[in-house]
Design brief:
single chain; about 170 residues; alpha+beta; three-stranded antiparallel β-sheet; 4 helices; 8 strands; about 25% strand
Length: about 170
């Protein structure tokens, strides 16, 4: 990353997400899987001539969705990392295709903390760091809600003390 003073070297992000993120991701998968499975199963129970052609995809979706809910969240947990330094906030996400997102402190415009219903159930939160980047905000999902609040406060304090980048 290049700043007005030169190049800043960032080490790989070290912080992991909260372990409860695995359960949160599993719940999301199961809910997304359950909706079409229930619709197909109900239709299959009601429509005799199409029963096989409705129950078969319901069963396939149920097996695939459950398999994804069991395997993927643990894999994601091992690969998602985040870090905050005095110069930048950055995340590494992705399993097969890893992506690093870096937001220099001088470019941060807003810091938001969001807690959806499932996140609240798991006592988690998402911190969204918005910059002027066309690529969009940097999101750190799956944080303990108290850690997220502290991080948002810390980022706000650091960005207030960081002079804006004129470029």
């Amino acid at each position: 990353m290049t700043t007005g003073e030169g190049t800043v070297r960032l080490r790989p992000p070290n912080n992991t997400l909260d372990p409860r993120a695995v359960g949160w991701w599993r719940a999301q998968w199961l809910l997304l899987t359950a909706a079409p499975v229930v619709v197909l199963a109900v239709l299959g129970a009601l429509i005799e001539p199409a029963r096989f052609w409705l129950l078969l995809p319901a069963a396939v979706l149920a097996v695939l969705g459950t398999g994804c809910a069991v395997l993927l969240p643990a894999w994601w947990f091992r690969t998602h990392r985040w870090e905050v330094t005095d110069e930048a906030v950055y995340v590494r996400t992705g399993v097969l295709r890893q992506e690093w997102r870096i937001a220099p402190m001088s470019r941060i415009q807003t810091v938001d903390t969001v807690r959806g219903p499932l996140e609240q159930l798991y006592r988690l939160a998402t911190v969204t760091v918005t910059t002027a980047s066309a690529k969009g905000a940097v999101r750190i999902e799956g944080l303990d809600h108290e850690t997220a609040a502290g991080l948002a406060e810390r980022l706000t304090r650091i960005t207030q003390d960081t002079p804006g980048d004129a470029t």
